[in-house]
């Protein structure tokens, strides 16, 4: 069974600085997807970024980028120029990609990101 | 394009009652998944529906059930509510399973409190 681990329950960063959130996962599959979701106090789960395992290039979305290390099963999220609106819980999630697979998201425990003004 | 909608947003029930939650996916999305989020257990998968059929089910008792209609709208039902069912219930929709990026887009959730 696949597992996702986020070892940092809480992180804090000064506004405008850069922060990296860690995520590791365990799987025997070769084809899968990885996601970072953000959940602000409103509790709405918002997609931040996604990575296809077959792509070697790291995904980027504006100030958000990932460091995907497939061999190490690591998928960290880097937030550059942190803004107050980035304060939220961040969840790392895994999803199988095979056509016969179970498509449920498997979640990490989350990292609470605090932005200091 | 409108996002995923969930109704009601908040609900208070007492033990032993039953509850029905509704989810309308993004237009064109045919797969709907449900998740339970609690402080103790985190996010847990409940079930996934596609074309009115349950494709997968998580490790929850039979009190938790769901269904999907021909317009892809989905409902989940919890019977004989227990205190531990208090949670945020999230619905997510995606394109046809097996195609595309398989990204799930979430609704705002229904917060259920069981007293």
Outline the structure in words.
The complex is a heterodimer of chains A (117) and B (115). Chain A is mostly beta strands. Chain A is built from no helices and 12 strands. Chain A has strands at 3-5, 10-14, 19-21, 24-26, 32-39, 46-52, 60-61, 64-69, 74-79, 88-96, 106-107, 111-116. In chain A, strands 2, 5, 6, 10, 11 and 12 form a 6-stranded mixed β-sheet that branches. Chain A starts with a strand and ends with a strand. With 115 residues, chain B is mostly beta strands. In chain B, strands 2, 4, 5, 6, 9, 10 and 11 form a 7-stranded mixed β-sheet that branches. A 4-stranded antiparallel β-sheet of chain B has the order 1-3-8-7, with no helix packed on it. Classes of the chains: A mainly beta (117), B mainly beta (115). The interface between A and B is medium-sized, with 23 and 27 residues.
Assign the structural class of chain B, choosing from mainly alpha, mainly beta, alpha/beta, alpha+beta, or little secondary structure: mainly beta
Helix content class of chain B: under 10%
Beta content of chain A comes to over 45%
| Element string of chain B (H = helix, E = strand) | EEEEEEEEEEE
How many runs of DSSP E, i.e. beta strands of chain A? 12
Count up the helices of chain B: 0
Estimated radius of gyration of chain A: 14 Å
Q: Hey, roughly how much beta strand do the residues of chain B contain? A: over 45%
DSSP helix fraction of chain A: under 10%
Mean pLDDT across the residues of chain A is 93
Largest sheet of chain B: 7 strands, mixed
Give unreliable regions of chain A as ranges.
none
Q: Whole-Å distance between the termini of chain A?
A: 41 Å
Mean pLDDT of chain B comes to 92
The secondary-structure class of chain A comes to mainly beta
Please write the string of helix (H) and strand (E) elements of chain A: EEEEEEEEEEEE
List descriptors.
heterodimer; A: 117 residues; mainly beta; 6-stranded mixed sheet; 4-stranded antiparallel sheet; 51% strand; B: 115 residues; 7-stranded mixed sheet
């Amino acid at each position: 069974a696949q597992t996702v681990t986020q070892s940092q329950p809480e992180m804090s960063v000064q506004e405008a600085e850069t922060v990296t959130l860690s995520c590791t996962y365990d799987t025997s599959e070769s084809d899968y997807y990885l996601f970072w979701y953000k959940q602000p106090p409103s509790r709405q789960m918002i997609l931040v970024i996604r990575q296809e395992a077959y792509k070697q290039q790291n995904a980027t979305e504006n100030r958000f980028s990932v460091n995907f290390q497939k061999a190490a099963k690591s998928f960290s999220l880097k937030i550059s120029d942190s803004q107050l609106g980035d304060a939220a819980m961040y969840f790392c999630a895994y999803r199988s990609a095979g056509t016969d697979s179970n498509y449920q998201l498997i979640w990490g425990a989350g990292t609470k990101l605090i932005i200091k003004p | 394009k409108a996002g995923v909608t969930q109704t009601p947003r908040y609900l208070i029930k007492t033990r032993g009652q039953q509850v029905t939650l509704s989810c309308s996916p993004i237009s064109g999305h045919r797969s709907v998944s449900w998740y339970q989020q609690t402080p103790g257990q985190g996010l847990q998968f409940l079930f996934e529906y596609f074309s009115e059929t349950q494709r997968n089910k998580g490790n929850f008792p039979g009190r938790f059930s769901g269904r999907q209609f021909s317009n892809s709208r989905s409902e989940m039902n919890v019977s004989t509510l227990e205190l531990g069912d208090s949670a945020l219930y999230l619905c997510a929709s995606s394109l046809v399973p097996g195609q595309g990026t398989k990204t799930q887009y979430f609704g705002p959730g229904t917060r259920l409190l069981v007293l």
